[in-house]
Amino acid sequence: xxxxxxxxxxxxxxxxxxxxxxxxxxxxxxxxxxxxxxxxxxxxxxxxxxxxxxxxxxxxxxxxxxxxxxxxxxxxxxxxxxxxxxxxxxxxxxxxxxxxxxxxxxxxxxxxxxxxxxxxxxxxxxxxxxxxxxxxxxxxxxxxxxxxxxxxxxxxxxxxxxxxxxxxxxxxxxxxxxxxxxxxxxxxxxxxxxxxxxxxxxxxxxxxxxxxxxxxxxxxxxxxxxxxxxxxxxxxxxxxxxxxxxxxxxxxxxxxxxxxxxxxxxxxxxxxxxxxxxxxxxxxxxxxxxxxxxxxxxxxxxxxxxxxxxxxxxxxxxxxxxxxxxxxxxxxxxxxxxxxxxxxxxxxxx
Length: 350
Known about the structure:
Order of helices and strands: EEEEEEEEEEEEHHEEHEHHHH
Distance between the termini: 84 Å
Low-confidence stretches: 1-12
Helix content: 10-25%
Largest sheet: 6 strands, antiparallel
Mean pLDDT: 89
Strand content: 15-25%
Structural class: alpha+beta
Number of helices: 7
Strand order of the largest sheet: 3-4-7-8-9-10
Radius of gyration: 22 Å
Shape: globular
């Protein structure tokens, strides 16, 4: 009897970047097992099958810096659907590396990588895998459980800062990435990707780059895709544009009609144009510690009377928002939302 091997066929499943990964083998034990980075792993040097990308407004994660990369299986394509939606093919891998500069005043002094999160598009949907980096900064190993990691660094103003950085477990990852029924990527939307990136071969719009590489189909010219404002760049949009972008990225994965917090009636996604649903003079569904005894989500002109600001400034796990993904207060983000609420025409809420 002739075997498949004798006939010149292989029964082996795809097993690497050039062929596509055997999805049944995921997650791989080590980050290096994916064979997608070149050189020292902590240098974040993309190999030929990997492409770095960045976002106009990213999710705040206790002041961690992030280096993002995308892998698409050979011959597969991402389908553009609208400004907020991309359909990624089965076999897609997204890598998000979380790190802290040792001294923010001088990046050349090095960094400490804490974790890498991998989102994988399998046949039955997305899965999230976390990898914890070793002290030597040479490897990251798959880890199901989360937990705190002590991190210290020097800030831009020269002061020392130390925090307990929290690595989420798989359930906590799902709480953020589950919009409706499926697990979904949060950041890489066309409007949040519509920006230039400094590639080794030069600066280029990311959507154009993906299309040029043969990764993106059915996308309009980037000029017709409204870019999301960059939350900390006043040249990228109005104060309201930047505040709404910040809330969309940091809050709307739950606070949207399809999100886990849909029962709150507070919808902070960029598409929502209903002021009451946005929080304007909106009483909370449930009073108590989470509202701080304040009456309304947003009181125009009065950030100190707004539940939204109160919860953003809280660190207690039962009060803070977002409740997962941060333990520190994002002081600059809070200042942006405060400025926006202060700029609103004061109205007497009933």
